# Entry
Amino acid sequence: MVTLEDLASKGKTNYSRKISIMHDNYAAAKDKAIRGYEATPFGPTRKAHYRDAWSVMPDNYRSKVTPDAADKWYRNWIDAMSK
# Structure
């Protein structure tokens, strides 16, 4: 029988392999994300702040992924799936 640990190990491997791809995809989503936000009913100040935030968001996202990110993902996944 497959255990949570077996499934989590497989997921951790996939997560570790995809970290750099996820960073690139996040940065590549900038224009689409801004276009989507521009379509909301929010006012011009809120929209300007969102556009400005994209100048730092991809680098900030990259810095949030620490060397232990895959281990953290593993622990959190097991915890969530155990409930």
Observations:
- The mean pLDDT is 91.
- The chain is about 80% helix and 0% strand.
